Amino acid sequence: MQNPTQLSGTTVDLPEYDDLASALGRGDAVLSPAELHGIATGLLIRDAATPAERLHRIVLGETGAGDVLADETARMLSALHDTTRTQLQDSELGFELLTPDEDEPLEERIQAACDWARGLVYGLAEQGVKTSECPADTADFIQDCLTLANNEYSVEGVSAEEGESLYMELLEFLRMGALMAQEELQPTRAAPQQLH
Asked: What's the CATH number for 10-185?
């Protein structure tokens, strides 16, 4: 089960990874749930007002009304979009990545984290973000995500404990990098000062 985020006394959960994978498969989408969540995150860290329909078009294209499978997938996409936006705006930094459960093989979870990084870069590109125009820290983070997305990683020869530790560090790097990029790409506006 995914880690919930507590916001104002309510629990905000990302969809279950396997449930989303099944819905994506039925809807003929070629993305993994992790990559999809990365795309949603990239869209939203550039502009928190991005509507869920933007994610629908990226994943489903233009589907006809009444397509039951597409409608089901669209509902899950909307839930993912809304939960991602809520988590990104959490003042307690409760944002989490959507990755396979911890009982899945480590290599599969590492691959999912790399898929997430690929999705994030795609989502930012969809919003017109250019690394050459980003603050240095965000540009470096995007470049690191590209490196993760374009390489294959193996845990061969690494102890289970070391592998799990590296995986947790990778997730935290991606999580905090996304929050940092959001702050730099759409900084919180200070409240206007009152004149006396």
From this structure: 1.20.120.740
